[in-house]
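Quick check before the chapter quiz. The format below is the same one you will see on the exam, so make sure you can read both the input and the output lines.
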Amino acid sequence: MGVTADEFAERVLAASLGAWETLSVYVGDRLGWYRSLALDGPATPAELAGRTGTSARYAREWLEQQAVIGILTVQPGLALDGHGEEVADAVLTGPDGERRRYVLPAGAAEALIDERSLAYLSPLPRMFAAAASHLPQLLEAYRSDGGVSWEDLGDDARESQADMNRPWFEGRLGEALRGVPAVHARLDRSGARMLDVGCGAGWSTIALARAYPASMLDGVDIDAPSIGMAQRNAADAGVADRVTFQVADGGTLETDVYDAAFAFECIHDMPQPVEVLAAVRRALRPDGIAIVMDEAVADKFTAPGDDLERLMYGFSLFVCLPDGLSSTPSAGTGTVMRQDALRRYAVQAGFSDVEVLPIEDFGFWRFYRLVTTPRG
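Here is the expected output.
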């Protein structure tokens, strides 16, 4: 039995409330307001504005909104005296409420500012902001069968993906690969050379370098700003002596040089995934291994779908499919790349099959090994 008009209207209203909340999280993230509340302590609007070099009037509106939606709490019965000291049992508000002091609870702080926490999700609204700021171009792409590229989406998009993936790569990738003996044995060879295709900001490459300190790694990506970020990140991580990054596509890869090749959450974005996977296969040594990490979507289309499917179709509509269709010719894969699609691409590229690796509880992702056959 279908929903009534009123019930559907309630759904649209709930989604709209979530949209405003998401954009307000973006503001607090990008302006450093959450970070200041977490690291510098509770603040009035004037204090927060002074700490962050922002407008006190906008800070007050945002603080009140964050308290109304339940992200921040209001410090009870505290105000400041003329010397900046907290005074208990003082009035809660002064003129226009500027003396209220706002608190970011610990759990929210971890999810909003701790870049190494697996709960870190404040970068997610950056992707929504990137898409929202390009809605006119996206509408035109929908009309003309065109696209909006990763380069067009800009820093919000590239930093969102990099920062969301970083905690999983840094905290779990080495452990996950060590848990698959056949894969670990290949990666743990002294002097093993590895390739990271579509490396983005380099956190996956850096994590591999840390997990396998006897290895050498090359990261490639077609997005120059991402490669710049990767180079800086590798230098900061102290692995630049074993890790190189370059702006390149599959056509520039060397042949028969890599013990392992990885593609983390990027195959579904590629306009020509078969050609890239074929280049990866050629780049591998005869006994090399190819690993793809991509979205853990269901094997088959089902409607209605679960929350993961809903999230991934959102990414696909506004980010990944327009990016993939921004170049021609294009496979037009989209974010929801099911196993059969990856298997078809892999077989067309010269691999014999695709197998799912026994890596569980790794965020939104699934790991595949592309099975190789001897090249003729």
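If your answer matched, good. Confidence is low (pLDDT under 50) at residues 89-94.
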